[in-house]
User: Fold this.
Amino acid sequence: MQEPITYLITNSAVVFGILAVILGLVFYTHHSDNIYCKRFYKFIPAVLVCYFVPSLLHSFHIVPYDYACVDVLKGVVEAGEKILAQCQSVAEPEKKKIAASGSQLYYVASRFLLPASLVLLTLSIDFARIKALGPKAIILFLTGTLGIVIGGPIALLVMAWVNPDVVAGDVWRGMTTVAGSWIGGGANQAAMKEVYQVSDKLFSSMIAVDVIIANTWMAVLLYMAGRSKELDTVSGANTSAIEELKETVEKFNKKHARIPSLPDLMLVLAVAFGATAIGHLVADWLAPFIADNWPQAERYSLTSKFFWLIVVATTIGLVLSMTRLRTLEAAGASKVGSVFIFILVACIGLHMDITAIVERPWLFLVGAIWMLVHASLMLLVAKLIKAPVFYMAVGSQANVGGAASAPIVAAAFHPSLAPVGALLAVLGYALGTYAAWLCGQVLMLVAGV
Assistant:
């Protein structure tokens, strides 16, 4: 009989503190001037480290994670009395599992921090400034979104013809998380994991596909940025609007930037968690109502409380972006949202299966085909409308890389253009929830589920 595994740490507060220290060290070293740190992060993305290091805690039996606990903890929130009866009927070891630290942290992060981050990340959308970028920038951004939505199903079809075993089973579910990441970002990726119930082992493989393929394409875009003048001359693109944009962005940043005060930060939290509370209220009523009256809607995730929580949170963020609360971005609203996201990333890392990365290498080909569809569509549309390389590159990276890397690509053209990348990336956060869900529906149809 196999001996039970003994874990070193089972206290949630201690585990959370360890995760916070890990994240702090990752970001400190990522922005360090140390030559070895720079070389390391040149090849290894910081977000991958935030996933990988916490995964070692479970792999080496430091922190436990019992997958069944998540379902039990959901029951605590949805039916408190029922869980008490359930706890009385289980053995003492099982009661300890209910308190498994990894489960508690992930549940809190996904149900509270994730929707709050979506509110804060979409709060800063300025539709007037997005419109000022001109139609070509918006066309290419939306083209990038379309390329990802249709690229996933195309990659699934191609691989089903080349090697059906690779995409058999629930692989389509895992692809929805990549769609969420490549259209929006980490928040949308985590949302799709919950909405489409992606297993942790498959999710681990998809994270590797996401990060490696996305960063390979980013390297191509940075290369193109270095030759943008030559490429624009060949294509006959007019770049005068970009020069005007540089001046406009610089003036806006100087006028609105400020050091956040305590009232600013308290208001940021009030908006984030107030909207999250509304999302829970709507989800708790709407999901059961749909389930009782239209049970067939379960196929489209419309009976999922988590689905409606994410949709409502995103929608509230979009609505608030058209009010004066949008000025909270100058006080760092999106930065607070990003903190929430990376806490969630670390919690997900607690139950990542590292071996899954090497067990399914063929999935990288799926990701490569997917990215090829996206890239080909972007280049084709850019050529047809004679758009500058800048719009194509930033529009693509705003989808694929999100707010973390779109400003990097934009800054490669000119430092003052970095906010343009962030602006389009925030638009990606708004579209990510809806477009990734749509991609998931198409993937489900292609998979014949």
